[in-house]
Amino acid sequence: MGNQMKKIIVLASGRGSNFQAIVKKIQDRYIPARCVGLITDNPKASVIDIAKNADIPVFIIDYATFPDKTVYEAELITLMKELSPDFIVLAGYMRLLGDTIVQRFHDKILNIHPALLPSFPGLHAQEQAIAYGVKIAGCTVHYVTEEMDGGPVIIQRVVPVLDDDDSEQLSARILLEEHIAFPEALKLVCEGRIEKRGRIVKIKGQG
Ligand code: GRF
């Protein structure tokens, strides 16, 4: 595989702080990739401005204008095929990708989740962690499979849960780690340093 530049696209629905962290690490040449597009389902997402400021093409596929998810995803997959990315990054993309897309881009889609999977999959992971009373939390970068938040784990980073934490405080602490973990995972996949057997991911040249 070597160190040649990979093409990535990013799907995001909202704020875009993970996207921002990734763009920065591409600009710094930490991640050997080019971002050839930001795709969003939300025309009001602030992630759009981040892409524009970085001269990254923005593709808005406004979910609200489609009759159903199948029609929406047909448009999405057409665009994704046109862009022909090496990797697809879900950075706060707030929809479940349908099986057709997941299968078409098998082993190419990465997601970040704000919990130490397999604990607390799904929405409001940080609130789930506080409500359960765990003492450590964190984030997970994983490959996307048909099972929600269930794909092979690439990187996890850990933070403490403090006694007085509310979900905002815990989310902020986790987010700082997300901004490290996601670029690091992308660097590894773009450099071809991942060895995956079943759901076990190993990083070449480590241990
Ligand atoms: C992050 O907490 C991420 O883990 C989750 O959605 C949030 C996106 O935040 N999947 P941002 O848009 O990257 O700031």
Keywords:
about 210 residues; alpha/beta; seven-stranded mixed β-sheet; two-stranded antiparallel ribbon; 6 helices; binds 5-O-phosphono-beta-D-ribofuranosylamine
Question: What layout of secondary structure does this protein have?
Answer:
Elements lengths: L5 E7 L4 H11 L5 E8 L6 H7 L4 E3 L8 H15 L3 E4 L8 H6 L4 E5 L11 H8 L3 E8 L9 E8 L6 H24 L3 E4 L2 E4 L4
Parallel strand pairs: 1-2, 1-4, 2-3, 4-5
Antiparallel strand pairs: 5-6, 6-7, 8-9
Helix pairs in contact: 1-6
The structure holds 5-O-phosphono-beta-D-ribofuranosylamine (GRF).
If you had to describe this structure to a student in words, what would you say it looks like?
- With 207 residues, the chain is of the alpha/beta class.
- The chain has one domain: Rossmann fold (3-Layer(aba) Sandwich).
- It has 6 helices and 9 strands, in the order βαβαβαβαβαββαββ.
- It has helices spanning 17-27, 47-53, 69-83, 99-104, 125-132, 167-190; strands spanning 6-12, 33-40, 58-60, 87-90, 109-113, 136-143, 153-160, 194-197, 200-203.
- The strands form 2 sheets. It has a 7-stranded mixed β-sheet with strand order 3-2-1-4-5-6-7. A two-stranded antiparallel ribbon has the order 8-9.
- Helix 1 packs parallel to helix 6.
- The longest helix is centred in the last third of the chain and has 24 residues, at 167-190.
- The chain is globular.
- The mean pLDDT is 96.
- 5-O-phosphono-beta-D-ribofuranosylamine binds at residues 12, 14-19, 91-92, 112-114, 175, 178.
